[in-house]
Amino acid sequence: MAQTQNIERLNNLTINEMDDEDVVDPWTVSSKSKTGLDYDKLIKRFGSSKIDDELIARFEKVTGQPAHHLLRRGIFFSHRDLHNILNLHEAGKPFYLYTGRGPSSDSMHIGHMIPFMFTKWLQEVFDVPLIIQMTDDEKALWRDIKIEDAMQMAYNNAKDIIAVGFDVEKTFIFNNLDFIGRCPAFYQNMVRIQKCVTYNQAKGIFGFGDSDVIGKITFPSIEAAPAFSSSFPFIFGKKILPVLIPCAIDQDPYFRMTRDVAARLKLPKPSLIHSTFLPALQGAQQKMSASDPNASIFLNDTPKQIKNKINKYAFSGGQDTVEEHREKGGNTEVDISYKYLTFFLEDDARLAQIKKSYESGDMLTGELKKIAIELITPIIQRYQERRAKITDEVMQQYFAIRKLKYNYD
Amino acid sequence: MAQTQNIERLNNLTINEMDDEDVVDPWTVSSKSKTGLDYDKLIKRFGSSKIDDELIARFEKVTGQPAHHLLRRGIFFSHRDLHNILNLHEAGKPFYLYTGRGPSSDSMHIGHMIPFMFTKWLQEVFDVPLIIQMTDDEKALWRDIKIEDAMQMAYNNAKDIIAVGFDVEKTFIFNNLDFIGRCPAFYQNMVRIQKCVTYNQAKGIFGFGDSDVIGKITFPSIEAAPAFSSSFPFIFGKKILPVLIPCAIDQDPYFRMTRDVAARLKLPKPSLIHSTFLPALQGAQQKMSASDPNASIFLNDTPKQIKNKINKYAFSGGQDTVEEHREKGGNTEVDISYKYLTFFLEDDARLAQIKKSYESGDMLTGELKKIAIELITPIIQRYQERRAKITDEVMQQYFAIRKLKYNYD
Predict the structure, then answer these.
(1) B250 plus B377 within the same structural domain
(2) B62 and B164 share a domain?
């Protein structure tokens, strides 16, 4: 039977409870190590490829742009078939970007901003259409949330995302609970995908159990569908375009499944570029999480809140006493303020200088925290200024079902 | 957890492999008995209620109309909460009708016509809106059929259904592969339903296995959604209306599930009225099936084909020789020509006279077959005249997303 031919392959892609302490799947990310997840092990386990210096050099050559600091520093660290996308761009052939977010009731935090900041940069250097899926149906299925509330969360979060600075002429944003009811081609692709994946395979990939509700079991088809350009005929017409999906590594199971389904449907396999996680204030064992206000710096925090949170909670790699610190130096491997600098401080020379100074003991934890506060606060303030301008009307422009500025006819 | 509270109840409603020989589920209907399925046993097994003389009398009193012969003769034989619908009608309160069809590539046969003939009559006596779902997505999931072909089958079959004579002002027909992408409220209800049913429950009710594709596992939510008026805001506005679902008894598992979900969602439980099956020409062990041309009289058969099929294949309850037949008489319990008369001959007195004459041996099998041929042929010819007028344009009127002639604001 056609639907069983890929079982073996899909079953190898099992839910990732790492041999040791790391857990990475779409619902849980945690590590017992103070330095956080072992991302090299994760690459081996997931079967993806490391982004190495050679690939970064090729990226720069093909785009004619210096690599983004998130790429240079290994924060986007892993990929699948990124070369295919670079080949296309080099040949002047089109592709598109697809990313998404599972909306939450809380404000988004700075960790959520990272993949969108990077996606914005990708869109700029490649000049391609971007599609952003808000999985409000997922939230309604996984949590005790009403449909209406899940939709409202999607709209609020979409405004947060738009404020990162996406170009409305090149960006289409949608929420499943509304859009699936407005695009027959999307639902038709959902069914095509649902036909290629058995319950056994979904169980193997996502760890579903028999007491999970049936909506959860089909949900992967909904996150997969935007990876096929035929789901958006109003943008792509009848043209079949490949896609590059920037996402945090925990979403990889969805797209491993999608890549197998693509092969079955004789459609291009999506390429992927994976990010690590911004750690929680308390330390790299946990990613920053919206459900713990003290672990996160939110996009709507005031300067005072940011200052207090970093001073109070940001795990320090410094020594217990000033004397000891001067002698032994700080540990940038576990210091959260330093980690945040690697995400937000674009200037490589300055970062290197801070690292040297902190590790040598010249710079104290208090000084390092001050640098982090003074870096992050204006970034958030500028963000908040943009966010204040995102009215319902502005948002609706991104959600409108329409052609983008590209012509694929 | 909310989603487990109904497991026990739903698990009792297991797939129906009858203790003895009868099998009745949405995918298989068969019996080893020459007289066909034991419908009384089925009522006990499914936990539905028998339509008895008292209920028929009440039906006639409430509607002010003589009962349809399909109701009088026990062809619509079972129900769930039909009294609720009669109470509503008596109180002048609105409800609606919902039925459907899994489209097939072949022409529909006379067995398919039965529930639609009866539904048309229900619509006329109650004067209520009717919604007809074409489950082309189901066909695409269960069979090796392309999405486009499944949709085309839905449109062809919809024309066959329209030709039964439904009033376009009161009837909305849709196919899932198109409509779900045109009605956000419908998809939202699908998610609400999907949230109330676990894989275990779906397995218990429908007999799904772990190697079934994930689309099959969610499909029941799609057949359930039209049972909630909020799935069709363009017809019902914000009004919550109860529904009566006329269907063949094999579809009952979907609506047992729907009734449990309705209770969870605090929405009215659908009422049901169930039909038996028109037997195949070869005998009552099998229902008429589109996949066996010699077992079925199709709606596009010529008079010559009808005559030949009944003469050649219709299982006879007559005796082996004329002498024996004159002596012992024919058996109307197994005679297929006679069974067809019970479905299509409206005149009770004439039917009783034929029964008497055949059972006494006065009427021979050839004579009975001639009566059946002369009854069915003009019914199909008149049907074909109507069918010839159902153009794409006519069909599109039934499929248009619009208000019906009722006002629920």
Answers:
(1) no
(2) yes
Distance set, CA B345 to CA B318, B348, B363, B375 (Å) = 20, 8, 17, 7
CATH code of the domain containing B334 = 1.10.240.10
Is A234 contained in some domain? yes
Q: Are residues A255 and A110 in the same domain?
A: yes
pTM for this model (two decimals)? 0.93
User: CB distance B184–A181 less than 8 Å?
Assistant: yes
Phi, psi of B77 (to 5 degrees): -120, -15
Chain B residues touching residue A198 (CB < 8 angstroms): 210-214
Which DSSP helix (H) or strand (E) runs through A275?
strand A271-275
ipTM for this model: 0.92
Cβ of B182 within 8 Å of Cβ of A186? The answer is no
With beta carbons under 8 A apart, name residues in chain B contacting A254.
Answer: none
Same domain, B131 and B180: yes
Q: Containing domain of residue A384, as a range?
A: 303-389
Q: What is the pLDDT of residues B262-304, one digit of tens each?
A: 999 999 999 999 999 999 999 988 888 877 888 899 999 999 9
Q: Which residues pair with B232 in a beta bridge?
A: none
Q: What CATH number does residue A148 fall under? A: 3.40.50.620
| Closest CA–CA distance from residue A251 to any residue of chain B (Å) | 19
